[in-house]
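Priority: medium. Attachment 1 of 2:
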C-alpha cells in the first residue's frame, strides 16, 4: 500500500480509492515541548511607570545605563512602551493620575535586579514625579499569535515573533503537517487494525503502531505491529515490556534490514532470528506480515526520519526507543496521561520528543478527529482479520503503551 501526496494535504489516494470523507475532520495537534509548557505559566515582576511622551526615550536611556542588558533578563517579547488604551485595566487603573494622553507607560526593570529607591534616585533628575508600580508580565516569549494576544489582554502588550525558542520552528511544523495531513488517518487506521488483531488474538492489549517511510511525496508502510505483551508470557501485571507495539515495530525494521543485508552477503549481519525473540519481532498477523518492507535508508540509525503512527501515546521506554532510533515524526491518537513519555503537560511531563539535552529531537502530534471512532471504516477498505465488536476498548484500561 502506497499513498502518494497529490497536493498540499487534502487530497491523496489509497490504492485509487478516495477517503475524502474521513480526512476532512482530521486535526493534528502539535505537542507542546517541556519548555513551552513551562513558558505558558511563568511570569516575572517588573516595575513600570508613566512618563511624559517627550521624555520617554531619555528615561529609557537612563534605565539602560542603570540596569545594563536588563540585568540578564530577556524582555524582547514585551513592548517596552505601551499606551494607556493598550494595557489591561488592572495596569491602567492605579496609574490614571499620570495617565493622560501625553503620557506613556514604560517597563523600567525586573524588580529583582534593582531596588525602588535606586530607581527613584536615578529617574528623579529627569522626571518631576516618579510613581513606580510593579506588575506581572510573561517571563518567556509566546509561541503563537493566540498566546501573545491572550498575554496582551492579561498582562502587558506582548509580541509574537513567528519563531519558537522552546521547540520546533512553526514553519517546520506546518510544512510537516501539510505532508502528513492527507494520509495520517490512513496510517492510524492501519495501526488500529494491528491493535485490534492483537486484542482479538489474545497476544496483547489493543495497541498498535504503523511505521511509515515517506520519500518524494510517496508514503508506504515498512512495519506494522500490534502489542504482544501476553504472547509467550505469564499473565502477570504488566506483561512483556519488550513486546510493546512500538518496540516490536522497531524490531521489525531491524529484522527487515538485517535480512536484506544478509541476502546481499553482508558478513556483519547478525546470525539468527532467535537472537531477538524476546522482542516478538516476527509478524503474527496478516496485517503485520503484509506491511513489512525494507526501508530505503541505511545510515546506521534504524528509523532515521521515518514516521510512526501509534494508537496510544507510547510509554516512557517506547518514547526513548523512538528517540534513539531517530524517527522524524510521531503521531498518536489516545493520550496516556499517567504513563506516556511524549507529552510535556501530562502527569509525567517528560516531553521526550523535544528535549534539548537529548541528541535527537523529532516532531510530535496528537491526531484528533470526531471521526476517530471510525478508524475501522478506513481499515474496512482492506478487510480486517475478524475484529469482534467487543475489542473496541476503553484506552484508560490499558496501563501503558
Ligand atoms: Zn511501551
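Attachment 2 of 2:
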Amino acid at each position: 500500500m502506497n499513498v502518494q501526496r497529490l497536493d498540499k494535504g487534502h487530497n491523496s489516494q489509497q490504492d485509487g480509492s478516495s477517503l475524502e470523507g474521513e480526512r476532512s475532520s482530521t486535526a493534528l495537534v502539535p505537542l507542546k515541548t517541556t519548555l513551552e509548557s513551562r513558558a505558558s505559566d511563568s511570569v516575572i515582576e517588573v516595575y513600570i511607570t508613566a512618563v511624559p511622551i517627550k521624555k520617554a526615550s531619555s528615561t529609557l536611556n537612563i534605565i539602560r545605563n542603570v540596569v545594563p542588558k536588563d540585568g540578564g533578563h530577556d524582555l524582547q517579547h514585551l513592548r517596552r512602551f505601551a499606551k494607556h488604551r493598550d494595557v489591561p485595566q488592572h495596569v491602567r487603573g492605579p496609574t490614571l493620575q499620570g495617565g493622560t494622553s501625553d503620557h506613556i507607560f514604560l517597563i523600567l526593570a525586573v524588580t529583582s535586579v534593582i531596588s525602588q529607591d535606586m530607581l527613584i534616585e536615578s529617574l528623579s533628575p529627569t522626571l518631576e514625579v516618579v510613581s513606580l508600580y510593579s506588575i506581572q508580565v510573561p517571563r518567556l516569549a509566546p509561541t503563537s499569535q493566540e498566546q501573545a494576544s491572550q498575554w496582551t489582554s492579561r498582562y502587558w502588550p506582548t509580541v509574537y515573533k513567528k519563531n519558537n525558542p522552546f521547540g520546533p520552528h512553526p514553519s517546520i511544523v506546518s510544512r510537516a503537517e501539510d505532508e502528513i495531513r492527507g494520509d495520517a488517518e490512513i496510517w492510524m487506521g492501519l495501526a488500529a487494525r494491528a491493535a485490534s488483531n492483537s486484542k482479538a488474538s489474545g497476544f496483547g492489549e489493543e495497541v498498535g503502531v504503523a511505521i511509515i517511510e515517506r520519500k518524494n511525496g510517496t508514503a508506504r508502510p515498512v512495519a506494522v505491529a500490534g502489542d504482544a505483551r501476553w504472547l509467550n508470557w505469564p499473565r502477570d501485571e504488566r506483561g512483556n515490556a519488550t513486546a510493546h507495539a512500538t518496540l516490536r515495530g522497531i524490531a521489525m525494521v531491524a529484522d527487515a534490514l538485517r535480512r536484506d543485508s544478509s541476502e546481499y552477503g553482508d558478513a556483519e549481519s547478525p546470525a539468527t532470528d532467535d537472537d531477538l525473540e524476546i522482542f516478538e519481532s516476527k509478524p503474527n498477523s496478516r496485517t503485520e506480515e503484509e506491511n513489512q518492507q525494507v526501508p530505503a535508508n541505511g545510515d546506521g540509525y534504524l528509523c532515521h526520519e521515518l514516521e510512526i503512527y501509534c494508537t496510544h501515546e507510547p510509554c516512557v521506554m517506547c518514547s526513548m526507543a523512538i528517540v534513539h532510533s531517530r524517527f522524524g515524526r510521531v503521531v498518536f491518537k489516545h493520550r496516556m496521561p499517567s504513563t506516556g513519555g511524549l507529552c510535556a503537560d501530562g502527569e509525567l511531563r517528560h516531553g521526550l520528543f523535544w528535549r534539548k539535552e537529548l541528541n535527537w529531537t523529532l516532531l510530535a502530534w496528537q491526531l484528533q478527529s470526531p471521526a476517530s471512532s471510525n478508524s475501522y471504516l478506513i481499515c474496512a477498505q482492506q478487510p480486517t482479520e475478524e475484529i469482534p465488536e467487543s475489542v473496541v476498548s476503553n484506552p484508560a484500561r490499558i496501563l501503558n503503551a
